[in-house]
Specification:
The chain has 8 helices and no strands. With 185 residues, it is mainly α. The longest helix is centred in the C-terminal third of the chain and has 43 residues. The chain is elongated, with a radius of gyration of 29 Å.
Length: 185
């Protein structure tokens, strides 16, 4: 913020307000975030129910359809999208997505039926199974989540240690400053 192409310093007076306001905003955001997180209550059973009762795994169903049949990915997503839209229009839950309804959607979407195993489809519709199959870094698998949370805990611990050390240094500096002021007085 202090450097300009012309190397002129007449813009410094503008920064006297911008930098402190930016710092004040950062502090306010941190405090707001802390207060939100402090009052946060996670209801995992509700999350699980909502995930089961919605179509969050529709893309997974399309991926499985493409992997287990002779349908390309784009067509698989078109088929699943049509089947899901029909269920939503009929106010039906994801559990009503069956091999038969996918076959009918395929016939309507691409002009031919597709066959998918009922057990494979059931697994693709299960959010927990879908999450467990994702094993890449940053995924939703239990292992990946535990690694990420472990890294966050370590980072938080490191920040807490730094914060404690900084507060101790600050207190020591204040004590030394007051002692020196008393000497000079």
């Amino acid at each position: 913020m202090l450097h300009t192409g012309s190397a002129r310093t007449d813009h410094f007076h503008l920064l006297n307000g911008i930098v402190p306001r930016a710092l004040d905003e950062a502090v306010a955001i941190a405090r707001l975030t802390a207060s939100v997180l402090d009052g946060l209550e996670l209801r995992t059973d509700r999350f699980a129910r909502i995930a089961r009762d919605s179509f969050v795994t529709a893309a997974d169903v399309a991926d499985v359809l493409a992997l287990t049949t002779d349908v390309d990915y784009r067509s698989a997503h078109t088929i699943v999208g049509r089947a899901v839209r029909e269920l939503v229009d009929a106010d039906e839950p994801p559990s009503q997505l069956t091999p038969r309804s996918l076959a009918a959607a395929a016939e309507a979407a691409i002009g031919r039926r597709v066959e998918i195993d009922d057990e494979i489809l059931r697994d693709a519709l299960d959010p927990a199974v879908c999450a467990a199959t994702r094993r890449q870094v940053g995924s939703s698998s239990t292992t990946s989540m535990q690694e990420m949370l472990g890294g966050l805990r370590a980072a938080i611990g490191e920040h807490e240690r730094w914060d404690k050390t900084a507060l101790e240094r600050e207190a020591a500096a204040e004590t030394a400053l007051l002692a020196r002021a008393r000497e000079l007085a």
